[in-house]
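Known limitations

Files may contain more than one protein. Parsers should not assume a single record per file. Below, a two-record file is shown to illustrate correct handling: read the sequence, read the token line, then continue until end of file.
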Amino acid sequence: MSTEKNLKPSKELPLGFVDRQEKELLIRDFVISNIKEVMINYGFQYLETPSFEYTDSIGKFLPDKERPDEGVFSFKDGKNWLSLRYDLTAPLARYVAKNYLELPKPFKRYQLGTVWRNEKPGPGRYREFLQFDADYIATGNLIADAELCAMISEILKKCGLTEKDFTIKFSSRKVLDKLFEYIKVNSAETRLKILRSLDKVDRLGWKEVEKLLGKGRKDLSGDFTKGAGLTEIQINEIKEQLNYEGKKITTTNPPPDGKTYDFDQWSKKWGEKEAEPVSNEFIEFEECLTSFGLKNCIFDPTIIRGLEYYTGLVFEVNLNFEVRNPKGQVVKFGSVGGGGRYDNLVSNFGKGIDCPATGISIGIDRLVFALIQKKDFKIKITRPVIICVFDRLQNDKYIKILKKLRASGISSEIYPGEGKLKKQMEYANKIGSPAVIFYGDDEIKSGKATLKNLETGNESSVKVEDLANEIKKLL
């Protein structure tokens, strides 16, 4: 920090961080209340984990660097690196491993918490944001995965969206694993680069992702990202098997245009023994979705999900309406939620723990950003009635009025600033107060206060004991 006396701190925020005002926060509270209602109905337990974890526990670090700065905000505490949590899933896995013997199996938990990502921000995508997670621990039953999709669908509907407003797409990490084997990519590092590249298709388009799969890509700012180093043959095989230039894809419920995904190509390329378990899993999963009454779910092998710990089914929730940035421009918004099966994550924390798991997340702030554009929220913001101050020697009388109003459930305050009546009225109008109370010498002598309705400008003389009832009439 500079020691110059004339240096003033910046009033600007770092990129990816934002001050949230009351209307947005009230809409967020509305979303959260709906989430909690659904979670109770579905039988999930509420859990909270700390904001900081050991960096190696959340799995986001680079061993070839002194500072683990890939995706996380970190600092060194003695010999150990600590990081602000990147998501809520890795802390859950650590919690389950620690309390494995005491927990019921399966264990269903949900959590609402802030997470931090040291990544490039974008429209509705922040470095600090509130996230909701719901997870099934210690079950491989596909009903659990389907119920998570039903649950997130119910939450979105409660928040004002219809089935036409969003689509739940699903695939499986097993498809990618088989594809990697087919194109002979065995390096874990290369596979991870491919996954991260493919996860950007929606945002960048296939042509740009093709560069990331090959030699590399330079973005608009001039930054160069080294590619995965695949050959043209390997890239074309990925494109063909994942159908990037193909169709809207589904398993058993063909879309209106009749274009469906051909599972037979897997048998031809991987062999029937390898392909059958994967395709059968999708068919069983979709049958569960159908039983839950979900009609807006489609199979899409291009769904990747960026985190490397997914092992099976993955799902993603995409909005079907336009979202605009603060400048009014339509943007590629991406998903508001997603998740999948991570059957090996808990076992990373201890030997002998066989703990299949599946979960789903919603970025609350991203969802609120989109909902505000889609739905007209009738949010009633409560502002206090202002008791104007004429003489500080009469503070005890103002406080008695204040206590009576608050005891009647009326938001109220004695003018908290300094200044004459004009300043007090300016304050009341600025905050949107519904009314002011005048209680000067004349009012004190008469035992009646003057109540001014700031919406109409009307004034009335009211007995102090009747103030609460009169104020309730104008609220």
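...continuing to the second record:
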Amino acid sequence: MFRFLHSSDLHLGKPFGRHAEDVRGRLRQARHSALDRLAQAARDGGAGTILLAGDTFDQETPAPTVTRQALNAMAQAADLTWVVMPGNHDSLAATELWQTIARDKPDNVILALSSAPAMLEGAVVLPAPCTARNPGRDLTIEMDQPTPDGVIRVGLGHGGIHDFGSDAPDGPTGIIAPDRAAQAGLDYLGLGDWHGQIRITPDTWYSGTPEPDSFKHNQTGLALLVAIEAQGATPSVTPVPVGEITWQRLDLDLTPGEDIAALLGATLPDLAARRDTLVDLVAQGRLGLRERHSLQTLLDRAAPDFMSFKSDLAAVQLAQEASDLDGIDPSGGALRQAAETLSARTQDPDLSAEDRRTALSALSHLFSFVAVEEEA
């Protein structure tokens, strides 16, 4: 039997420039500590080998501290063998990077820098390292090469399946045949590049990233524990959670008269998980002004619980209620006239959607100012 852990897309050194400084620091640290969690997941699963299918580093010129600390983490897991293959972000074009790693790596790290088979105890790994950010061809075709009889054959690739897609911002790094495992006589094909874990066929999988970096896939960080009994046997593939930070995109559907506090409480993660969670909440539906103000107040109170919290109420339409306008100004004075004008604009079909949203936002702010004064 050959038992191993398949992972990819660690993107060590990713800057996370769009986030606040404290959030950036935590995200970078979580990515580095993913190496320790992968090692523990391998041990817990009885695996002695970890295969990293590309994009271990986020860029071709990571800071020296990033590469050195990654190698130190692998060295500390000396009971495991690490097979590290270049992806599109850290391709073979980064000659200085891979020369440095080859010089400084510990003995338990194997670099897959060519298509040459890497012999392991119980199996052979057939890698297809990315030669450039966009190789423009299916590099896994070179996996169709002879290996000793009876040895388990594991392919390691990085790129998009032709009917699938890629997380690379400039398009797929190569078009991988979805039946490459069958064509090349592989017992398992482990892929990287797509950050969500997905099964292509029983013997071809994207591991997904062990530490998500966006809301795109709405998954926790995962790896794959793979066991192959013998050459020709169907692999046993088990998803293993290894992530530290959770990214959640949440939908909130609203209707007038609903218990907003109860609905929000049922939608948001439990209190214990909030410190390690980034949330992107998008609301839609209809609410009265008073209900909208209450919702915004609840969101503002919940936000500090989270590592990062963003909410978008732009799609929430106004449910007209005279009592809401009375709450702004029951006397019919200037404030009431302004509120009625804004209210009419939120429903005016001759206005653009953006103009209607602007009017609703202004009306909501007006109601909020009055409500704050009343509360004070």
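Parsers that stop after the first record will miss the second one. For reference, the second record is described as follows. Residues 224 and 239 are 5 Å apart (CA to CA).
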